[in-house]
Amino acid sequence: MTLLWIVTVLWAFSFSLIGAYISGRVDDYVAVATRMVLALVVFLPFWRRVPWRLALIMMATGAVEIGLTYLFLYRSYHYLSVPELLLFTIFTPVYVSLFSDLLARRWPRQFWAPALLAVAGAAVIRWTDLSGDYWTGFGFIQAANACFAFGQVWYRQQSRGNPLPHRVRFSWFFLGAAAVTVAAAVLLADWDKLPVTPVQQGVLLWLGVVTSGLGYLGWSYGSTRVTAQQLAVMNNMLIPAGIVVNVLFWGGRVQEWPRLLLGCVCLAVALWLSRRRLTATPAK
To answer: 278: phi > 0 → left, psi -120 to 50 → alpha, else beta; which?
Structure first.
């Protein structure tokens, strides 16, 4: 759990970095592809040959969990305002619970309570008035949520009985993510919006090497050490963490602190409930 908290704080900074230095200045597809390629470079020294079926599975996991997630996410920006987009990401814990149950071949029962409580807590924090025409964007962001959730659960399941070190798996993981995002950049990017300033290049270097590379490694490894519902709840802890980081370091403003505090209480209760209702047997 400690590792998931560390990565949550790391990712909370990333939202402000992207908003302040990348979004609207660097093409979305170029930024995402750059991050994935840089993350791949981090893990290339650990690459080793593995059976082709296993290689394809690991590449597919990376392509879905990161590659497709980011492609759907950035597409949703064309239809949603930022508050709407953040609001619609609160459903990720539900998808984590759903895919955990489906892949374990069990019928969802008591496992949903912590995930739904986490959704309620995040909704209290992020709820804003919705614009009139947002269903297309809603579909894209739900596709992103589902891909991210499925990738986490799938990686967690693969870790059972898998002797390969995580760093080896991630060399294949990011190969799949890089393949998808680079292909999308070649086809869809606006090549007039490249990272040309030292600040933009430095931020992308940080996002690629630390946030994407080391961050996703830490998150995926941490996901194998907790229960499915603890993982589901932690997916929404990023919302209050991101707000706090933005307020403290980028001068952001919170207009309704009581709502923020109430939402955080809901998330904390959801995390406590997940520990109470599930046996915390880590995946090896």
So the answer is: beta
Which amino acid is it at 115?
Answer: A
- 6: Cα within 13 Å, side-chain hemisphere: 14
- How long, in residues, is the chain? 284
Residue boundaries of the structural domains of the chain: 2-97+129-226
Q: Which two tokens stand for residue 137?
A: 């964007």
User: Rounded to whole angstroms, how far apart are CA atoms 227 and 272?
Assistant: 12
In this predicted model, what pLDDT tens digit does every residue of 48-68 receive, in sequence order?
A: 998 998 899 999 999 998 899
Do residues 243 and 260 make contact, with C-beta atoms less than 8 angstroms apart?
yes
> Considering only 56-60, 184-188, 243-247, which range has the smallest mean pLDDT?
243-247
pTM (2 decimals)? 0.77
CA triple 206-212-213, angle to 5 deg: 90
DSSP the chain: -HHHHHHHHHHHHHHHHIIIIITTTS-HHHHHHHHHHHHHHHHGGG-----HHHHHHHHHHHIIIIIIHHHHHHHHTTTS-HHHHHHHGGGHHHHHHHHHHHHTT---STTHHHHHHHHHHHHHHH--PPPSS-HHHHHHHHHHHHHHHHHHHHHHHHTTT--S-HHHHHHHHHHHHHHHHHHHHHHH--TTS---SHHHHHHHHHIIIIIIIIHHHHHHHHHTTS-HHHHHHHTTTHHHHHHHHHHHHH----S-HHHHHHHHHHHHHHHHHHHHHS------
Between CA 21 and CA 93 the distance in angstroms is 29
